[in-house]
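Q: Protein A?
A:
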Amino acid sequence: MKRQDFYYELPEELIAQDPLENRESSRLLVLDKKSGAISHHIFREITDYLNPGDCLVINDTKVIPARLIGEKEETGAKIEILLLKRRGNDIWETLVKPGKKARPGTRVSFGDGLLTGEILKIEEEGNRLVQFTYEGIFEEILDRLGQMPLPPYITHQLKDKNRYQTVYAKHSGSAAAPTAGLHFTPELLQAIEDKGVSIARVTLHVGLGTFRPVKAEEITDHHMHSEFYRIDTEAAEKINRAKESGHKVICVGTTSCRTIESAADENGRLEAGSGWTDIFIYPGYKFKVLDSLITNFHLPESTLIMLVSALAGRERVLAAYEEAVKERYRFFSFGDVTLVQ
């Protein structure tokens, strides 16, 4: 299967640059995965598609303000460090720009010395290991100095950091938001629970690899990034109960989907646990747990549109995207949303 099989034309003006004032007022495209039928709604109407006994799976990861702008201590040259993965002892795997001159031994100062970093090592893919030095609590310093690591296709500055955060974000560690969850409000989540739908909270810390383009001609040659996930006993029990009773498991976002599909055994049963996943879901994959998916519109030729195509079929998904373009839906992280059921 070729990368180009997942290409579609998208006018640049349909890439959403800012979040809507009201989270749940996004537009909702509902796609029937079997027939390809499409209908148009407002996101708050999602409750019409959830039934008592169903389980809604959400990713409660929290985005850290992982983008730091500093200066080289030797030259004063501007340098940007993006935190990707904590390695322990204040050592982080990072993405550094410009990278060519960021050699081991380079020291960088942030916030007039409130935080300093030294590049220790260059990893295989060009990422840098950076040792940070500071006084106080790292998370508080990061909250003060760091910026939200918005995707490269968003060119506007975000006025409110919380708008790139779900209302249920809890466990810090993501370099990008699980954006399908941005459409929920506390009131909407309460209405869903009041309807008899259980909500299972899982955690997958989203890495910037989620934006990494597929460059291989054959999609099976693509190297998938690895991300940390955790599922507790309560979440596993809720998901298993829904499956065993014949009800649906609906994932909010591709990250929730990848989490439960990674953790499930051959029979689709989940056990509590944690680990790293590099699961790559594309057409031909047989879902073990997931029945329906709530997700934003994804980039052409991305691993994410491939995942959605595994659920509904490539032709039906591309037809739905063509319809969304025609109807002027808003695309990507701050855009509108689809329900594939």
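Q: Protein B?
A:
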Amino acid sequence: MTRADRAGRDIYNNHCYFCHGYDGDANTVASRFLQPPPRDFTVLGPGELSRDDMIRAVTGGRPGSAMMGFTRTLSREEIGAVVDFILDTFVETRRENTRYHTVENGWPDHQRYAVAFPFALGELALDTADAALTPVQRQGKQLFLSACVVCHDRARLIDDRTLWDRRTVSYPRGGYSHRDGELADTISAASLSARHAVAPRLVDATPQQRRGEEIFQRNCAFCHAPDGTGRNWIGAFLEPSPRDLTSASVAALPPERLREVIAQGVSGSAMPAWETVLDEAELAAVAAYVEAAFIRRDTGTMRGGKD
């Protein structure tokens, strides 16, 4: 691998993998939340997407999607390097990108967990009834749920509503290592993000606000955090960071401008235009919930309050 190839790979693994996946197939947690989903590069044929088109997308983003522009983050040379890496690795040659489970990363014999691989790779749905699984598959499912799920999240589901709540998993503190045998417990604040995973409790909310609460916590909280601060793992990863909805700058927005931002998105950021996903009533409901749950006005108190 040349120096330019390594540079493109490093940029991709630092900025792009979270949505598009290490293997470029967009089989990620983010793809289950974002509409439209991130692009799957592995389904493209050679020449189907030109280098110039890709450079424009990485530079300026794609309106109506969560694909932000990286012109403020990457140089022209870096954008060219990462585009060349994507085209060469995922489209032209179909090469493997980066393996995490290596000896150097603390996984001397990762193959011994092979029974769990079908669930991690999405080959078997995690909510498949135990009766429909072989004894080895049931063993793999148990192993996945007891260990692998911490990083691989929920893999593939048959019924997306049945297993557990959709919310961002808090990222362990910098001192945590899976090699030390310690347990990361978000309840006891072993994670910096734990307290931001608690949504405010609305008192005497209207039906519209309750509808907005449901939409926000199932969709927007992925980036903005359940408490609206954007201080969760995903919020810390994105550049620029999602807006802190409890901040004075948001409180200064007129209600009509708030609704417009939700509908049309924010250019140059990962904030997509939700008017392509939500109808007028749903957009109004989300704006009403943000007003009630997060925005501080003249009184200086949070509407609805927290437990």
